[in-house]
Amino acid sequence: MRSNFTQKMLFILIFAASVFAQNSSEIVAANGEKYPVAGRDRTRNDNEIVVFTTDFYKKKPTFKNGVDVYVVDGKVSVIQDRAGAIYLFNKPDPGVIAVGKDGFVFSAQGDARKWVVANIKVGDAVAVSEIKINKNSSGEIVPSASLPCFAGAYYRKAVTSFDVWTGIGGLVKLGTPKVDENRLDEKDKQPLDNFSVYMGGNAGGKSEVDAGLSWEFTLDETGKRSSRRNAFRPFWRTKTWNSAPDEKKFYFYPGETVQMAVLVAGPNKLRLIISDGKTKTFQTDFDAEGFTANIPRQFKRVNAIDQRHNEGKPVQPTRAEITGAEWMNTILLRGAGADAKQIPMDKTRFTDMRCAGESNISVTTTGAAKGAEKIDIYGTPKK
Questions:
Q1: Residue 217 is part of a domain; what is its CATH number?
Q2: Distance from the Cα of residue 374 to its chain's centroid
Q3: Domain limits at 81?
Q4: Whole-model pTM?
Q5: pLDDT tens, position by position, 221-247
Q6: pLDDT in tens, 31-47
Q7: CB burial string 72-111: b at 16+ within 10 A, e below
Q8: Residue 53 neighbours by CB under 8 Å, 6+ apart
Q9: Which residues, in sequence order, are bridge partners of residue 326?
Q10: Which residues are CB-contacts of 323 (< 8 A; sequence separation ≥ 6)?
């Protein structure tokens, strides 16, 4: 039987999620760059590319806050950047394109317009290409067999395919960090290795979000800061780093079990929930650019040893480690409202990334069907 806490968390997850549609085609520019097509013969929304037949375009022309591209015989015939003319160059609206019977039009707005301006030129070859997608028997897009590691940290990431996922949630026992006392910053004498356990997502391969718990300093009853980082505290990172208020009720400690979730809360919005199911709960909605109806989404969970001043660089040798972390379960959300499905994040639904190398990561599966496993991370591999 589920606990009241678990039932409450699942209720929050289900009814906060929003439904999004998967793209099945994309615009392919002459330089190889691609952008997903959000729809055909309908109103264009922000950050979308919509494709029109010439008949539909004549009857229901686009608005002035975008760029229109007319393609005939596979080549760009006309580009009408109405938004650029009006809002950037303070010129009169050039109006819609005078199209003929042949060809088609695609129109872009917001980020999609920026992509068109940067990648599409008159005379270029351009195509609308169907996206080839491998799906399983449940209609889910199959995750990649492997993905390249991002340099600068030791971590274990379980990451889904880009699909119509609307969130991720799980129950995790927090690991115990151990720093390398021989790796201290020369200026502040603090360890150069830090620790985190988090979830997050990516929209369309461009907008990456991290959100969860990071090993941080704390304040005592008098407001004095601890001399070393000594507790996990909620954070979320989009273009900037953000943290929960520096208060005792938002401190989580090694060995504690917490519920964590990141889910779509609306267009360009994600929600982070972290709770011990008793007295400590943190929840926030935050801006997450790109998490919109026309963009496929990917979700992840990560256990990591991060390295200060080293992001994007080769990992530095260290004896830091974090052990004893355990995911009791992990679920993915698919759909919206009461119709949202809770799907176990088992090994068929994620790419298993062990970085910088497999010898640094120890994973013990404890419940394959429910996405449960123990994870230990070692800067120096154990023999």
A1: 2.60.120.1270
A2: 23
A3: 25-130
A4: 0.71
A5: 999 999 999 999 999 999 899 999 999
A6: 999 898 988 999 998 88
A7: eeeebbebbbbbbbeeeeeeeeeebbebeeebbbbbbbbb
A8: 40, 41, 104
A9: 173, 374
A10: 175, 176, 178, 376, 377
- The 3-class secondary structure across 332-352, one letter per residue, is EEECCHHHCEEEECCHHHCEE
**Burial class of residue 357, CB neighbours in 10 A (0-12, 13-18, 19+):** exposed
Q: How far apart are CA 215 and CA 304, in angstroms?
A: 11
Q: Is residue 143 part of a domain?
A: yes
Per the listing, tokens 């497999």 go with 358
Q: Give the chain's domain count.
A: 2
Closest alpha carbon to 62 in 28, 117, 99: 99
Cα distances (angstroms) measured from residue 366 to each of 4, 156, 202, 236, 355 = 24, 16, 27, 28, 21
Q: What whole-number distance in Å separates Cα of residue 102 and Cα of residue 39?
A: 20
Q: Residues 322, 155: contact at Cβ < 8 Å?
A: no
> How crowded is residue 161: how many other Cβ atoms within 10 Å of its Cβ?
21
- Looking at the structure, do residues 110 and 228 belong to the same domain, yes or no? no
Cα 27 from Cα 51, distance rounded (Å): 9
**Rounded distance, CA 377 to CA 350, Å?**
19
The residue out of 92, 115, 130 marking a domain boundary is 130
pLDDT class for 259, splitting at 50, 70, 90? very high
User: What is the phi/psi pair of residue 306, to 5°?
Assistant: -90, 155
